[in-house]
Amino acid sequence: MSTRPSGGQGPYAVIDTSAGTIIAELSPASAPKTVANFVNLARAGFFNGLVWHRIVRGFVIQTGDPLTKNGGGDRRRWGTGGSSQTVPLEISGLKNGKGTLGMARSQDPNSGSSQFYINLADNDFLNGQYTVFGRVVSGLEAAQKINNTAVDHSEQPLVAEQALVTSIAMRDTP
Q: Which residue among 100, 126, 137, 151 sits deepest, i.e. has the most Cβ atoms within 10 Å of its Cβ?
C-alpha cells in the first residue's frame, strides 16, 4: 500500500489558488471513475472561483462546493453542494498520506461528486472510507498557506478571497 499513484503517468492537475500553485499527479489506474469525473469537471471550469471552504489545521483543506462560488452564497450551506455527477467509492492501495488528494462524500460511500480534499498529514484512519485519487508533486507549501488562513468556528475561512481556487488546468506532464 502506498501514497504514490501510478508512478509518473499523469494526468496532472495544475490547481491555481490565491495562495499559489499546487500540482497534483492523478491516478487513473487506482481510481478511474473518480479521476475521469475530476478531469471532466476541471476541463469544464467547474472549480474556477470556488472557496477552500473547510480548513482544518494540520488535517485537510477541502474545496469543490459550487455553493461557495467567488465566496458568495449562504455560508451556512457551504460544504453541502456538489456537481450533478456522483462516483462510487474506489478503494485501492493508495492511502490518505500527507499530500494526497481524496474525494469527499456524504454518509453514502458512493456519493463522491466534486468536493475533494488535500491531506496535510498522514490520515490513516480515513483509509478504506474515501477514494484517494492523486498526490501533490509540487506546491504543498501553497496548501499549507491555505491551511494557515484564519477560520471561524465552522472551519470556514474568515475572508473567502484568501482561500480561492482560481482555476484547475489539466496537463499530461508536471
A: 100
| Residue 2 backbone dihedrals phi, psi, to 5 degrees | -145, 160
Q: Decide yes or no: CATH 2.40.100.10 for domain 12-171.
A: yes
> Can you tell me whether residue 126 is helix, strand or coil?
helix
How far is it, in rounded angstroms, from Cα 36 to Cα 64?
Answer: 15
The whole-model pTM stands at 0.94
Q: First CA to last CA across the chain, in angstroms?
A: 24
Q: Is the pLDDT of residue 83 over 60?
A: yes
- Give the residue among 147, 157, 66, 51 at the shortest CA–CA distance from 113: 66
pLDDT (tens digit per residue) in 8-55: 678 999 999 999 999 999 999 999 999 999 999 999 999 999 999 999
The domain segmentation of the chain, as residue ranges, is 12-171
User: For residue 7, what pLDDT band results from cuts at 50, 70 and 90?
Assistant: low
Q: What is the mean pLDDT of the chain?
A: 94
Band (pLDDT 50/70/90 cuts) for residue 2 is: very low
